């Protein structure tokens, strides 16, 4: 049994704590929401762990992550290890690693995929950092990933920043896949030729070349709301798609599908369309993301 401190018990962090505990690990969780937190503060979390410590951060990217890393740099000791598992931009990882490294604290950046279904299905993990730190954290990675060959759900992608870079590109691809399903859904509905649109999508789940987990989630959403009429066609973007396109531009890599998917999300904030209701439904299904629902009298 290994011990882990887990900071951030939101939609993913909470389920990660439960999956790790089910695997036999001792997990001390901290969240600003006292109802789900095991301790009252970051200092209490550090004190509850035996040295050398491993602390996993799962808080929103940006200012919240920077503040948490800065506080941990003051609280942790030489030989401890910090894992940053949020959707941070990969360029921030070098800064975090340098800050912690000055105090002899290790750092790994981990792209985590699996959404709100990860507790049951496991999480795909993309890791950046040193080989020694990766090996040290492997008991936790093995507990979180799905059963089966490690290389099918886990990768040590490279040095610091590589994990979040891989997750950034993963999410850019996700944008394109969701948009393709959504446009197909709209075309099926608009044609008037197909009488059972949800049935067609459901029939694609086995034996076809377009089968996928995202398709299964769209089918589930349609079973609950066959025309997705309860949703507004308003879709946010959390940053990774934009970063992916910036990297594509910097590296002169054509990315027309991802760019079109991102621009479609911008368009969704100006007009209501069946395709964007489908994208909104998919984001709610796999990630528990907030969606806008129609107000009825």
From TrEMBL:
Q: Is this entry keyworded Oxidoreductase?
A: yes
Q: Which UniProt keywords apply?
A: Gluconate utilization, Oxidoreductase
Q: Does the keyword Oxidoreductase apply?
A: yes
Pfam family, any one = 6PGD
GO process annotations (BP): D-gluconate metabolic process; pentose-phosphate shunt
Record-linked SMART domains: 6PGD
The chain positions of domain 6-phosphogluconate dehydrogenase C-terminal read: 163-294
Select a single GO molecular function from the record's annotations and give it.
phosphogluconate dehydrogenase (decarboxylating) activity
> What's this protein's family per the entry?
Belongs to the 6-phosphogluconate dehydrogenase family.
Write down what this protein is called: 6-phosphogluconate dehydrogenase
């Amino acid at each position: 049994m290994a011990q882990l401190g887990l900071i951030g018990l939101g939609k993913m962090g909470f389920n990660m704590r439960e999956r790790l505990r089910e695997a036999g690990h001792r997990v001390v969780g901290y969240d600003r929401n006292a109802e789900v937190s095991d301790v009252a503060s970051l200092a209490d979390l550090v004190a509850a762990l035996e040295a050398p410590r491993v602390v996993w951060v799962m808080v929103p990217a940006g200012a919240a992550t920077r503040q948490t890393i800065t506080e941990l740099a003051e609280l942790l000791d030489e030989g401890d290890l910090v894992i940053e598992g949020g959707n941070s931009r990969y360029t921030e990882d070098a800064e975090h690693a340098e800050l912690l490294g000055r105090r002899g604290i290790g750092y790994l950046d981990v792209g985590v995929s699996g959404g709100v279904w990860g507790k049951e299905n496991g999480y795909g993990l993309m890791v950046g950092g040193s080989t020694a730190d990766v090996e040290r954290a492997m008991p936790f990675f093995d507990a979180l990933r799905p059963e089966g060959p490690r290389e099918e759900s886990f990768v040590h992608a490279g040095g610091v920043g590589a994990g979040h870079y891989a997750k950034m590109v993963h999410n850019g691809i996700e944008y394109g896949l969701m948009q393709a399903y959504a446009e197909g859904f709209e075309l099926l509905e608009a044609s008037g030729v197909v009488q059972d649109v949800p049935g067609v999508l459901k029939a694609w789940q086995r034996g076809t070349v377009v089968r996928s987990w995202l398709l299964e989630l769209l089918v589930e959403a349609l079973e609950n709301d066959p025309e997705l009429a309860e949703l507004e066609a308003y879709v946010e973007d959390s940053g990774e798609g934009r970063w992916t396109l910036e990297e594509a531009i910097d590296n002169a890599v054509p990315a027309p599908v991802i760019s079109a998917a991102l621009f479609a999300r911008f368009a969704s904030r100006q007009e209501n369309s069946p395709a964007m209701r489908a994208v909104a439904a998919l984001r709610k299904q796999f990630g528990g993301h907030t969606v806008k629902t129609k107000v009825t009298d």
